[in-house]
Each structure stands twice: as C-alpha cells, then as structure tokens.
C-alpha cells in the first residue's frame, strides 16, 4: 500500500503551497458536510488530501467542526494516514511559544460533540490506550526538525470545549494533571480517526502560555495570531518535508489499519441496516465480510 496523507490544517494553516496535479473536491458524507472542500494533489509522487479544519476564512469555531464528516471524507479520499496541525497553549515552561510538540496522549474534556461513528444499532469499542500512531508521529517530528522547528516529542494534550480560553483555576488544574498543552480540536478527532482505522499524529504548534504563567500576560487573540502567523510557514514546510520522507519510506502495514477486526460487538443479524450504510467508508472493510 502506498502512502496517501490526509492533512487537517488547524488555525493559520489553510493551504499547502507547491502541490502538483491539484484538484478540489466537494465530498458528501452520511454525517453531514466536512469543514470545506478537500484539496487533492501530489508532492514528490506522494498523494496528499488537505482539509482546513475550520474552513477557509476560519469560519467554524471548535465546537462546530464536524469531526465525523471530516474523518469520513478523508477516508473516502483514500487516505492511509492523517496528520493534524494544531495551534495550542502551553502548560509547561519548556514548551515556549513557537515550539512544536508532537503529542502522544490526550485527556478529552469536550462535552458538546459526537464522539463516535458507532452507537445504537451497531456497537464497537476501539482501544485508545495509545491514541497516536508512533510511526507517523516520529516521521512528523523528524520533518518538523528539518523545517527548522524546535521539536518536543511526546506530551499530553488536554482537549477543552471552548471557544473561551481557560480560567486560571482550570489552567492550574490541567498542569496538576501533568498535561503539557491544551487545545480545542484534537478530540474527538483522534478517536474518530482510530475508529476509521486511520493512523493519526498531531503536530501541535505552541502559541502562548495560556494564563498560568505569571511572567507572561494572559492569553489573548492578538498575541496568539502573531505567533500563529510565524508558525504557519514552518508548519507548511513540515508537511513538505514529511512528504519527502514518505516518498523514500515504504509504507508497511500498521496494526491500526485493522484495529476494527475485534472491535465490533454487534453480530451481523442484529445490526441496524441504516447504521451499516452510514459506515460504508469508515468500517466497510469489516462490515462487508
């Protein structure tokens, strides 16, 4: 199987310059409309499908991002792996604004978003013990370093509902839990990618120290946007470098490619046909056999 990289562009990253054979596609999914059109292209012979998470013009707040539609659309686009680019706040001194953190764990504190493709009529439980694909995360970290970023590998991402920034008490609570960064978009995105058998990794671009660090002013949109603009070019270069790495790295099978093999609980004769139909892209591999 060849690589086809899906890229979910976060705040400040709304395109990937330099793509060849570019075409844009409006994708319809059983879960509604994704955030925007998917831009298809190639770099160095590797296929890429880019989707701006907040839509062009950043018109969607975090809670309105249809993560189910986005992941379903990338699966339909033939993606084998998904890279998330996200702006985050830092909860640790060592993660200064401008640092790229390739996280490997999550704490999900969102509450207003559908978190699964499965449910009544067809039940499945996937493991999230290790929510990030270690292979893709390692390659993404290598690419970010080649792009000139200071990179920290590993860290826990606290996913909050938003759209408001956290209170000082919340920020201190998350620090006491051992969290490293906080953001508003990687959950339930990472959970849904796992259900869709898509290896997922996230490059988190630090924009601020949230509000816990007394040596720095509390986070505000102006300061975030300033750092975000500086991060965006480096994030695009990270994608280009990652594509170059993938072009010379054969894609070996991943256990994530088949993680639904033992996740579906509902036997075939008890499955709701309407739910099965909605899962044609996400879980068709296991439901059709």
Record keyword descriptors for this entry.
about 290 residues; Rossmann fold; 11-stranded mixed β-sheet; globular
Walk me through the structure.
The chain is of the alpha/beta class and 289 residues long. The protein has one domain (79-287): Rossmann fold. 27% of the residues lie in helices and 21% in strands. It contains seven helices and eleven strands. It starts with a strand and ends with a helix.
- The second-level CATH architecture is 3-Layer(aba) Sandwich
**What fraction strand?**
15-25%
Give the distance, in angstroms, between the N- and C-terminal Cα atoms: 20 Å
Largest sheet: 11 strands, mixed
As a whole number of angstroms, the C-alpha radius of gyration is 18 Å
Which CATH first-tier class would you pick?
A: Alpha Beta
What general form does the structure show? globular
